[in-house]
Write a structure and sequence with these properties.
Layout lengths: L5 E5 L3 H11 L4 E6 L15 E2 L10 H11 L6 E3 L5 H12 L3 H28 L11 E5 L2 H14 L7 E3 L1 H7 L12 E5 L3 E2 L2 H15 L3 E4 L3 E6 L4 E5 L4 E4 L1 E4 L19 E10 L9 E4 L4 E6 L2 E10 L8 H14 L10 E10 L6 E6 L2 E5 L5 H16 L2
Parallel strand pairs: 1-2, 1-13, 2-9, 4-17, 5-15, 13-20
Antiparallel strand pairs: 3-8, 5-7, 6-7, 10-11, 11-12, 14-17, 14-18, 15-16, 16-17, 19-20
Helix pairs in contact: 1-7, 1-9, 4-9
Bound molecules: flavin-adenine dinucleotide.
Flavin-adenine dinucleotide binds next to helix 1, strand 2, strand 14, strand 18 and helix 9.
């Protein structure tokens, strides 16, 4: 079968715009269809902004099993498990628990690492060839550990990931403070710091907007915003998407990049992907003298601090199985409290703004689903906690499935 000349990409989050770019730069004429009024207005909008190419540790891990009873009872503020009885959710939970073994954790973490390293290369190429402004910067990243067990485990995982291109150093608190003085105020109880000096940051919403500009002005892409795709039709000679007003668009192939919706449009075609939402929150507060320049992740508190042009982005909380897109004030208050406790002078918390929540599209094994199950249908879905990090590499993999 000849390579497609035209493609419709559903969804303009970071994965959709990156996929559109990977195809368009290979000469495919792309149409981008997005239900919101602009790019990256859902999960890609105000995430942690970290391009975490080396911290690909799968969420399903052996230590989590012992925490399950506490999670189920709602006793871990940063991580909630919502009980639902639908078969897809229960199947997903079963798959997730099956991935909490040493061997699966190792496999999933290294599989994600490979994709993240490909993403780093693809992002470097993009920024070399195009003037896309999104505050991209090699900020470096520090993971801080307050329990001996977690610190030991982190060093073992870092050793497991050791390979060319992976620079991670175990530092004492004193060594870490010499690099990032902001950690001085967080000193209580920190036993060790894992430093990844080459990790990057960038604002995902600015990225998606800049990519849309590049796509439409330089690469011939047509973008439709405010248009919901309600169905996909596949025929021998073309694929079609049906829009909510009944209009139809056709192309040689349709690619589903609809994020946390989990490939709902694919079900009619016999593909049920194991994707469920995990809700998270963020806010952005003005930077102050004590704000970190290096990205900081407080591992036990599950909160991240990222210095952006707009201020300090603070993100965290993991509400598994929660698909409600509205902001829960209590959960936002938990994030604020957690951030203050972790890095008390890390930002002007009293002036926090940009309160936001998003649904991470989770798979049980922390790896996305990128496939072309039909000559006229492909998908790039399920990027979980690392979609911003993995977007560019996933897009390249997708494009290679479509254009040889
Ligand atoms: C609190 C939080 C912090 C995070 N921090 C980080 C981080 O620091 N680093 C990192 O790498 N990742 C992070 N993530 C994860 C990352 O944000 C996601 O994995 C990523 O945004 C997923 O991108 P996406 O393009 O698949 O989904 P989305 O951004 O949700 O894009 C999907 C798009 O498809 C559109 N769509 C859906 N259905 C239809 C339809 N039927 N018709 C038309 N359009 C449709 C939606 O409107 C949406 O715009 C974080 C997530 C959260 C919630």
């Amino acid at each position: 079968m000849s390579a497609p000349h035209t493609a419709i990409v559903i969804g303009a989050g970071v994965v959709g715009v990156s996929s559109a770019y990977a195809l368009a730069r290979r000469g495919v004429e792309v149409t981008l269809v997005e239900r919101r009024d602009g790019p990256a207005l859902e999960t890609s909008h105000a995430n942690g902004a970290q391009l975490s190419y080396l911290y690909t540790d799968a969420l399903a891990n052996p230590a989590l099993i012992s925490q399950m009873p506490k999670l189920a009872l709602g006793l871990v503020p940063a991580f909630r498990l919502r009980w639902r009885t639908d078969p897809d959710y229960l199947r997903w939970l079963g798959g997730f628990i099956a991935n909490c073994t040493d061997s699966r954790f190792r496999k999933n973490t290294l599989t994600a690492l490979q994709l993240a390293l490909e993403s780093r290369v693809a992002m470097e190429e993009l920024t070399c060839h195009h003037d896309v402004e999104f505050g991209f910067r090699n900020a470096g990243k520090m993971h801080v550990y307050r329990s001996a067990r977690a610190w030991q485990a982190a060093q073992a995982v870092a050793a497991m990931k050791a390979q060319p291109g992976v620079v991670q150093r175990a530092l004492s608190l004193k060594q870490a403070i010499a690099i990032e003085p902001a950690l001085e105020q967080a000193a209580d109880g920190i036993l060790g710091v894992l430093h990844s000096p080459e990790e990057a940051v960038g604002d995902p919403h600015s990225f998606a907007c800049a990519m849309q500009d590049l796509l439409t002005k330089q690469l011939g892409t047509t973008a439709y915003f405010g248009r919901l795709v309600t169905d996909i039709a596949l025929r021998d000679d073309e694929a079609e998407v049906v829009l909510d007003d009944g209009d139809r668009l056709s192309a040689d192939i349709v690619i589903d990049c609809s994020g946390a919706e989990g490939g709902r449009l694919l079900r009619r075609h016999g593909h049920r992907l194991p994707i469920i939402p995990m809700k998270g929150y963020s806010f952005t507060a003005p930077a102050v003298d004590g704000s970190p320049s290096v990205s900081i992740t407080d591992v036990e508190a599950r909160v991240v601090f990222t210095r952006l042009k707009a201020g300090v982005r603070v993100a965290g909380l993991a509400d598994l199985g929660n698909a409600d897109r509205s902001i829960d004030g209590k959960r936002m208050a938990t994030l604020l409290e957690t951030a203050r406790a972790s890095l008390p002078e890390g930002a002007a918390f009293d002036e926090a703004a940009g309160f936001w929540c998003g649904l991470r599209p989770m798979t049980p094994d922390a790896t996305p689903r990128i496939a072309r199950p039909h000559p006229r249908l492909a998908y790039n879905l399920g990027h979980g906690v690392l979609g911003w990090t993995m977007a560019m590499g996933s897009a390249e993999r997708l494009a290679r499935l479509i254009v040889n």
